[in-house]
């Protein structure tokens, strides 16, 4: 909690955070995006830096200022976020002690990106159209599959609609499938709404439901849990 968020308690640690949406271009004027504001990831980056960590923040297009002391890398698509992650983590993943993956990474991208603006089709045949999409790589699952130790500690996020029970079930599935240490689950309606969030933190040990709090406060709670994982590694 707040008392545990002591100044400097994360010093000497390297934390990589991803934030915001990814944006998948269709042509020079159109893209597929999502409702992620970036606020959760920016809050994690801000708090990690304030608590002494060396922080790299890899973000999709958002309207937010860079938190003090944070190295920011701006990206656009899932594939460009993958490149930035590879640079930040290194081939052997030794570049970070923790990766907090708050980004809402697009699951699919247009199969073809047109270099020129697409024109609408004329005549009766143009009344309907469809878009061919191809799957993006799962950035977190790739890193989870590659990771041999707890370096970096991996934190995933899961934004869902549906019942609280489904929320935790999906989060457990993602924890196992992506080989994460923690998955922070929240409801889309709350998560994308503004400055507050209500989350459940799921780990192999169980699910901890948290009350509604600011994204900054939730960031501290998540970082407390990451610090606990680090402490367990030493013990
Ligand atoms: N994620 C990722 N790469 C993707 C999709 C998701 O790294 N291509 C990460 C997100 O950053 C998040 C976690 O995986 O930390 C869960 O994302 P989510 O969209 O909830 O899970 P998916 O596995 O994509 O499942 P679905 O969207 O079908 O619920
Ligand atoms: Ca997804």
Automatic annotation (TrEMBL):
Q: Which intervals of the chain are annotated as region Phosphopantothenate--cysteine ligase?
A: 15-235
Keyword annotations: Decarboxylase, Flavoprotein, FMN, Ligase, Lyase, Magnesium, Metal-binding, Multifunctional enzyme
Give the protein's cofactors.
Answer: Mg(2+); FMN
Boundaries of every DNA/pantothenate metabolism flavoprotein C-terminal domain copy = 10-227
Entry's cofactor comment: Binds 1 FMN per subunit.
Q: Under the GO molecular function aspect, what terms does this record hold?
A: phosphopantothenate--cysteine ligase activity; phosphopantothenoylcysteine decarboxylase activity
> What EC number(s) is this enzyme filed under?
4.1.1.36, 6.3.2.5
Pathway given for this chain reads: Cofactor biosynthesis; coenzyme A biosynthesis; CoA from (R)-pantothenate: step 2/5; Cofactor biosynthesis; coenzyme A biosynthesis; CoA from (R)-pantothenate: step 3/5
Spell out the reaction equation it catalyses. N-[(R)-4-phosphopantothenoyl]-L-cysteine + H(+) = (R)-4'-phosphopantetheine + CO2; (R)-4'-phosphopantothenate + L-cysteine + CTP = N-[(R)-4-phosphopantothenoyl]-L-cysteine + CMP + diphosphate + H(+)
Chain positions recorded as CTP binding sites: 107, 117, 137-140, 157, 174, 178
Q: Which function does this protein serve?
A: Catalyzes two sequential steps in the biosynthesis of coenzyme A. In the first step cysteine is conjugated to 4'-phosphopantothenate to form 4-phosphopantothenoylcysteine. In the second step the latter compound is decarboxylated to form 4'-phosphopantotheine. Catalyzes two steps in the biosynthesis of coenzyme A. In the first step cysteine is conjugated to 4'-phosphopantothenate to form 4-phosphopantothenoylcysteine, in the latter compound is decarboxylated to form 4'-phosphopantotheine.
Q: Which family does it belong to?
A: In the C-terminal section; belongs to the PPC synthetase family.
Q: Would you tell me the protein name for this molecule?
A: Coenzyme A biosynthesis bifunctional protein CoaBC
Gene name in the database record: coaBC
Q: What range of the parent protein does this fragment cover?
A: 190 to 424 of 424
